Amino acid sequence: MELYLDLFSQPCRSVFLFAKTVGIPFDLKLVELTKGHQYDEDFGKVNVMRQVPVLKDGSFVLTESTAILRYLVQKHSVADHWYPAELQQRARVNEYLSWQHTNLRAHGSKVFLFRALYPVVMGTEVPKEKMDAALEALNQSLTMVEEKFLQNKPFIIGDKISLADLVAIVEIMQPFGTRLDVYEGRPKLIAWRDRVKKVIGEKLFDEAHEVIMKAPNLAEEMKNNTDLEKFKLKLQKMFS
């Protein structure tokens, strides 16, 4: 089985962390987004959408991180708590995975892009009102994680970790990589993060997030990379 990943991407990190944590063997095919590898002809044959992650299992090709996570759970013998067989517990995992796309993921990604890439792409700082609105939306999502999903439980669906926790932690770490302390004043979130890290293992957790923790250097790398014009144009349209 091959996994096409870039650990700069939070969905890729969730797939990487899950496969590594539960011991699913795979060949890593690195697709470095900040170097424009997604536009290579060979990768276009694997995924016409030119996005990661991608799973290739023999002739079977699957895209979308949450679909890949569910496929891995159902193909391999892993502990039930990752994606419980019990109907309502599984529904809770699915509830979180459905919610996060347009909430925590969207808002955390926007703050990350504003802080890490907007100045180099647009040639100016982010307008204060835009940044304030993005930070407020992210804070609302973080509060929802605490109050709606975690409540007083150790993990999102109960006493044990699930796919929902993995998907949540990688999204929260994205803006954190820009040196924004998203955990400040949130002891419940800090305690949950530490529990997740303990289950995964700090060494593996740090390995997965090594690239994103260097995000402050990303703008300079992009500035000097002439192969990223397509990527920059896409961001300019997003920011304008």
TrEMBL record:
Its main location: cytoplasm. GO terms for biological process: glutathione metabolic process. PROSITE patterns: GST_CTER, GST_NTER. Residues 1-80 form the GST N-terminal domain. Homodimer. PANTHER family: GLUTATHIONE S-TRANSFERASE THETA-1 (PTHR43917:SF9), PTHR43917. This is glutathione transferase. It comes from Sebastes schlegelii.
